[in-house]
Design brief:
The complex is a heterodimer.
Chain A (H helix, E strand, L loop, with lengths): L2 E6 L6 H10 L7 E6 L4 H12 L2 E8 L2 E7 L4
Parallel strand pairs in A: 1-2
Antiparallel strand pairs in A: 2-4, 3-4
Helix pairs in contact in A: 1-2
Chain B lengths: L5 E5 L4 H12 L3 E8 L7 H5 L11 H9 L3 E5 L1 H9 L12 H18 L4 E3 L16 H8 L5 E2 L11 H4 L17 H10 L17 H14 L6 H6 L4 E6 L2 E5 L3 H8 L6 E5 L7 E5 L3 H13 L9 E6 L5 E6 L14
Parallel strand pairs in B: 1-2, 1-4, 2-3, 4-5
Antiparallel strand pairs in B: 6-7, 7-9, 8-9, 8-10, 10-11
Helix pairs in contact in B: 1-3, 1-8, 5-6
The chains are: A alpha+beta, B alpha/beta.
């Protein structure tokens, strides 16, 4: 199990969701991915994408102009 | 025990695709959603940019639909491939720059490809016969079937009873009797069905889900092509058409002037790609300049940009122009009065 990071800053939804989806699809169950975004919409959209696709949100924090979301990849 | 059949549902985020997918789930079909991102989708973008929208909850309606349905959703970036659909639509444009029929054919053909790659059996859409003037006309629904290559693996659950039986119906994978016969522009049957299924708070976008159906947006796109003398675009181009006031004081340059703080922040991300104009002596918008300005143009552009600053009534404001070369130029100018702004400059 490994930890990865993804820079999805300066792109607007749904691009951060698409980038997250494409990266998660390359990872293995149990891996974690930390996604950085500047579109505050990602704070809703990435967790929604994770819920419907069976991945776990470990943390979602909003700091100044950035949103950081950490995901644990599910087994589906 | 029979094999559970699998359908891929085109999910736009609107009510019709939500209902179509739900009808299939009712029949025990395994459904997964697919949502195509062309770059022109209304979802998200301007909601994220403009401050005045920040009080509204931000949500992606395609994701919301999938969550309501309890199905997976695959979002597919088709920005590059979509260029050919928009630039060379075989069936032409609608009232604006919307190539709806070519778009539908393209999306169904992409769904067919996905279906084959993932071992699914058929495709469903939320199309309703006669609902839309271009892509859902009765005589054009078969064109989508034929030209997408989906043939009889394309099922439209909301209006299937008005159409010939498709493979899933003939094979008994779905019960045709439980499909519907909606037609026309009346939305009441869909709203009643939504109520029956307990769907509330679904999206009802007034202008549809695509910027290309919007007259103002389409005008800006045509202006872009005319100014560049070619029908082409990059992703950043089409994003910027959604943001700010667009004024073209001369054929060779255009100003993109932010309207509020959220747009200022968004345009700020383009500083390395465009010359910029900033008002230094007063609060004011960030302006991007698309094109090449002469020294005289710079005076004019600075006067226009400062018109939209808090110094609009001042005798003099200080303006900083930063060219793409990095050269900075400071001007002391009088903002242009409203009466001097040619309305034809507004795109």
């Amino acid at each position: 199990m490994s930890h990865y990071s993804l820079d999805a800053r300066n792109s607007l939804c749904p691009m951060p969701v698409i980038k997250t989806q494409n990266r998660v699809n390359e990872l293995s169950a149990g891996d974690t991915l930390e996604v950085s975004c500047t579109d505050p919409g990602a704070l809703n959209d990435i967790p929604a994408w994770c819920r419907i696709n069976g991945h776990e949100i470990l943390q979602a924090i909003e700091q100044k102009d950035e949103v950081v979301i950490t995901i644990r990849v599910g087994s589906n | 025990m029979s094999t559970q059949r699998k359908a891929v549902a085109l999910i736009s985020g609107g009510l019709d695709s939500l209902l179509a997918a739900r009808l299939m789930l009712e029949q025990g079909i395994h459904v997964e959603g697919i949502n195509f991102y062309t770059g022109f989708c209304v979802e998200g973008h301007t909601h994220a940019i403009r401050k005045k929208d920040k009080a509204k909850p931000k949500r992606n309606n395609a994701l919301w639909s999938a969550e309501q349905l309890g199905i997976k959703l695959h979002i597919v970036d088709i920005i590059e491939e979509y260029k050919d659909v928009l630039i060379n639509p075989k069936h032409g444009y609608g009232a604006n720059m919307n190539p709806c029929l070519d778009c539908k054919i393209f999306m169904v053909s992409k769904a067919k490809q996905w279906m084959q790659e993932h071992g699914f059996d058929f495709i469903i859409t939320g199309e309703v016969m006669g609902q839309r003037p271009m892509s859902q006309r009765k005589d054009l629904l078969p064109v989508v079937v034929r030209e997408s290559g989906a043939d009889d693996r394309l099922l439209r659950p909301l209006c299937a009873k008005n159409l010939a039986a498709t493979l899933p119906e003939r094979e008994g994978w779905v019960n045709r009797e439980k499909l519907l016969d909606f037609s026309g522009r009346n939305r009441k049957p869909q709203m009643a069905l939504a109520k029956q299924f307990g769907f509330e708070d679904y999206a009802t976008p007034a202008g549809g889900c695509c910027f290309l159906t919007d007259a103002n947006y389409s005008r800006k796109l045509v202006d872009l092509w005319q100014a560049r003398n070619k029908k082409d675009y990059e992703f950043d181009d089409i994003m910027l058409l959604k943001v700010g006031r667009h004024l073209r004081p001369a054929p060779h340059y255009k100003l993109i002037i932010s309207r509020e703080d959220g747009e200022n922040k968004f345009l700020n991300g383009y500083r390395k790609q465009f010359a910029t104009i900033e008002i230094k002596s007063h609060n004011g918008p960030l302006t991007l300049v698309d094109g090449q300005m002469t020294e005289k143009d710079m005076q004019q552009a600075a006067r226009i940009a400062s018109r939209f600053s808090q110094g609009r009534n001042a005798d003099q404001v200080e303006v900083k122009i930063t060219l793409l070369s990095g050269r900075e130029k400071f001007l002391q100018i009088k903002p242009m009065p409203a009466s001097e702004i040619n309305q034809a400059w507004y795109i």
